């Protein structure tokens, strides 16, 4: 028997945006801790899910790919149903899928605003709802949404992203209050800059990169596995007293 409070042995987790930079690290961390994983991502990411599922198998855990587009609520519900058909009842869900369109507020179009808000805020809510509808009747579960340090402080030229991430920080508080008496915890993780598909071009500018690293008291960018370890804590019984929180994994950015 594994008595570590960080163990997820016997649990099933669904991760959205699972084949991206942070998503894949989250999948590996949860599988390493003992969870079977539903790898949820856009249908076009199916090929990227194959090596990730092999990583999960290397930890002795099961993985299924469940296609979804978090802007389409019915596809979210189908993905949760497929995940449970393949792996059994879900105890953990990670709402990680996200995008950014980095543009000044004077130029951002309505369509661009809608894209960012639909994926980063509406998509997170309906992912949480699909998870809650399964977990609440069973009386237990842990939901983790990936917010950002930019849900707490601003980042230049990202008004929709900053608004959506701030929305996620208060969304998890709202759901946490509603579902705490029903046994389901809801938290967020707020990462600093990590080099992934989301940030690679932006961080590719040496001046931008130096400016960003200069704002991080620990003096370096985050690593995907450092964000994943924060998610693991919130997903696991180790955080049994924690709900409605945003755990910043930001190298001290928001402490300044
Ligand atoms: N990388 C960073 O510096 C950073 C910092 C703070 C927060 N975040 C957040 O972390 C999360 C993951 O970002 P990342 O850095 O891994 O980016 P990424 O671009 O590497 O991965 C994003 C993932 O989301 C998926 N996705 C996009 N639109 C989707 C949709 N409509 N439906 C389903 N899946 C969709 C993509 O297919 C991809 O797998 C995002 O919410 C992002 O805002 C990232």
Summarize the structure.
With 256 residues, this protein is α/β, with parallel strands linked by helices. It contains 8 helices and 7 strands. The N and C termini lie far apart (43 Å).
Give the averaged pLDDT, no decimals: 97
Number of domains: 1
- Judged by helices, strands and strand pairing, the structural class is alpha/beta
Work out the helix count: 8
The amount of beta strand, in percent, is 5-15%
What level of helicity do the residues show? 40-55%
The CATH superfamily is NAD(P)-binding Rossmann-like Domain
Largest sheet: 7 strands, parallel
Could you name the CATH class?
Alpha Beta
What does this molecule look like?
The protein is an alpha/beta fold and 256 residues long. It has a single domain, classed as NAD(P)-binding Rossmann-like Domain (Rossmann fold), CATH 3.40.50.720. It has 8 helices and 7 strands, in the order E-H-E-H-E-H-E-H-E-H-E-H-H-H-E. Strands 3-2-1-4-5-6-7 form a 7-stranded parallel beta sheet, with helices on both faces. Strand 4 (92-95), helix 4 and strand 5 (141-146) form a beta-alpha-beta unit. It starts with 11 loop residues before the first strand and ends in a 7-residue tail after the last strand. Nicotinamide-adenine-dinucleotide binds next to helix 1.
């Amino acid at each position: 028997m594994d008595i570590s409070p960080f163990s997820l042995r016997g649990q099933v987790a669904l991760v959205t945006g699972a084949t991206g930079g942070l998503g894949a690290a989250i999948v590996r961390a949860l599988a390493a801790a003992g969870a079977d994983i539903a790898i949820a991502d856009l249908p076009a990411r199916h090929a990227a899910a194959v090596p990730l599922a092999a990583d999960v198998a290397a930890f002795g855990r099961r993985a299924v790919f469940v296609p979804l587009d978090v802007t389409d609520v019915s596809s979210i519900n189908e993905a949760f149903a497929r995940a449970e058909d393949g792996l059994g009842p879900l105890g953990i869900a990670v709402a990680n899928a996200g995008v950014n369109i980095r543009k000044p507020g004077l130029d951002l179009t309505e369509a661009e605003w809608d894209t960012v808000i639909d994926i980063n805020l509406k998509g997170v809510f309906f992912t949480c709802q699909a998870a809650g509808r399964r977990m609440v009747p069973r009386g237990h579960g842990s939901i983790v949404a990936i917010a950002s340090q930019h849900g707490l402080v601003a980042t230049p030229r990202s008004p929709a992203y900053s608004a959506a991430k701030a929305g996620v920080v208060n969304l998890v508080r709202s759901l946490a209050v509603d579902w705490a008496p029903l046994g389901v915890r809801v938290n967020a993780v707020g990462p600093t800059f990590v080099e992934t598909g989301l940030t690679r071009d932006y961080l590719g500018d040496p001046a931008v990169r130096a400016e960003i690293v200069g704002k991080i008291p620990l003096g370096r960018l985050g690593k995907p596995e450092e964000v994943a370890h924060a998610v693991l804590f919130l997903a696991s019984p180790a955080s049994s007293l924690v709900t409605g929180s945003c755990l910043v994994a930001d190298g001290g950015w928001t402490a300044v």
